[in-house]
Design brief:
Organism: Cerrena zonata
Protein name: CxC6 like cysteine cluster associated with KDZ domain-containing protein
Shape: globular
Largest sheet: 5 strands, mixed
CATH superfamily of the largest domain: Ribonuclease H-like superfamily/Ribonuclease H
Pfam family, one: CxC6
CATH architecture of the largest domain: 2-Layer Sandwich
Number of domains: 3
Number of strands: 13
Structural class: alpha+beta
Number of helices: 14
CATH class of the largest domain: Alpha Beta
CATH topology of the largest domain: Nucleotidyltransferase, domain 5
Radius of gyration: 26 Å
Order of helices and strands: HHHHEEEEHHEEEEEHEHHHEEHHHEH
Helix content: 25-40%
Length: about 425
């Protein structure tokens, strides 16, 4: 799973193909089959992970055998997930020659400079359709959580508060009903295949698809009539017929590739969300790295200044080198003054960048491979699986750093969390 993003279904299939004659090894009749299925792979994965976690904490794994297996693991998974929030990852306090350098403090004494990179990736799971609601769904097929269950009877058109009509997802307004008709068409297999051809720039001489359909960010809108603005303005109604998914997974990665922490962002990748994520991940001033790269640090820095947040007073917040060169305007005086990496001389040595500010994007290339595996998982399993993959990958990275003579080590936690 860690190295090749293999799903539980394919793991079971590989095992069964590898031992097709296993049944002949049993001489006497036995009520159990020697082939395994996807559910057994997942049960083994979660139980094994929980046992390893309990062993590392010198605790005992206790499960209620009177409830079904999926419910039996829920409490244990939730407990482990809570332990991983903030500085819960085993290698949260990692340091090595590639992500930690020696510098001189203002008084001339030697000090350590640690570098981390923050970035998000669009891996999501089903969540409540109310913006930024973090309450878990009762079922993965639900659109709203228990608290917002009454929203199921409201028209799916954004900003419309009217009740739906029986058999429909929209109210009685003609333009809203037309959006529902177009949405049904766009959800057909033929329409989706046609759109896939368009994305691949494949020319098809004869088309049976409607040419007057346009789409918004969520689902298609209808637009009729001549050019120019209508009397009602040019705003188009938008709808969300399907389930909402979490916006992204935010990772904080050392410049050598160790993932220090992860958080789920529900509504957007806002500057305040990044600030709160860093607060939770580095709860004390001493634990905050000396430099944290982020592609939107100029807005994060502005927010920190406006809120007079002193938590990051000893931390440089530059934009990573790639985004600074290609996506930030030279005319932005604030960004150039506070977030230009070249403004910080400690980030360079012999006219070369000391740290790899693209470490998070490189890590996201690996992390994104799990989208197909986790996209329908419940919250407890989703969180546990991703944290487990991160922990396993960190162990592989540390072994690689040892082979590279990068001298990886862990800073004592009691020195950082004071």
């Amino acid at each position: 799973m860690v190295c090749s993003w293999t799903s539980a279904t394919n793991l079971a299939r590989i095992y069964n193909l590898d031992v097709p004659d296993a049944s002949v090894r049993i001489q006497a009749p036995w009520s159990y089959q020697l082939q395994i299925n996807t559910e057994q792979v997942w049960d083994a994965f979660f139980v094994h992970g929980l046992l390893l976690d309990c062993s590392s904490r010198n605790t005992i794994l206790i499960l209620d055998v009177s409830v079904p297996q999926d419910q039996r693991l829920h409490f244990a998974l939730e407990t482990r997930n809570q332990h991983m929030v903030g500085p819960g990852q085993k290698y949260w306090n990692h340091a090595c020659n590639l992500c930690c350098a020696e510098r001189k403090s203002p008084d001339g004494t030697p000090a350590a400079l640690r570098a981390s990179v923050v970035d998000g990736i669009s891996i999501g799971r089903p969540c409540c359709s109310v913006h930024d609601c973090k309450e878990a769904l009762s079922s993965q097929r639900d659109r709203f959580c228990y608290t917002h269950a009454d929203m199921r009877d409201i028209c799916v058109i954004v900003d419309c508060d009217d009740h739906i009509e029986p058999g429909h997802q929209t109210c009685s307004k003609a333009d809203h009903r037309q959006l529902e008709v177009v949405g049904i068409i766009e959800r057909t297999a033929m329409f989706q295949l046609k759109k896939r051809l368009e994305r691949l720039n494949v020319t098809q001489p004869e088309t049976a698809i409607m040419q007057d359909l346009s789409s918004s960010d969520d689902l298609p809108n209808t637009q009729e009539g001549c050019e120019g603005k209508s009397d009602e303005g040019n705003a188009k109604p938008r709808a969300r017929f399907g389930r909402r998914r979490t916006h992204n997974e935010q990772l904080c990665v050392t410049s050598c590739g160790i993932i220090q922490g992860r958080a789920t962002f529900y509504g957007s990748e806002s500057p305040n969300g990044v600030r709160l994520f860093l607060h939770a991940l580095f709860p004390t001033a001493k634990s905050v790295p000396g430099v944290i790269f982020h592609d939107n640090n100029c807005h994060v820095k502005k927010l920190i200044n406006n809120l007079q947040d002193s938590h990051f007073d000893r931390c440089a917040l530059p934009v990573d080198v790639f985004h600074m060169k290609s996506k930030h305007k030279e005319s932005d005086e604030f960004c150039g003054r506070w977030c230009n990496p070249a403004h910080f001389p400690d980030l360079m040595v012999n006219d070369k960048w000391r740290f790899n500010s693209s470490a998070a994007e490189m890590t996201n290339a690996w992390f994104g491979g799990f989208q197909a595996i986790v996209q329908e998982m419940r919250v407890d399993r989703y969180e546990f699986f991703l944290d487990e993959m991160i922990q396993r990958r960190n162990e592989i990275i540390v072994a690689d750093l040892q082979h590279q003579h990068a001298m990886p080590y862990q800073i004592p936690r009691n020195e950082l969390l004071v």
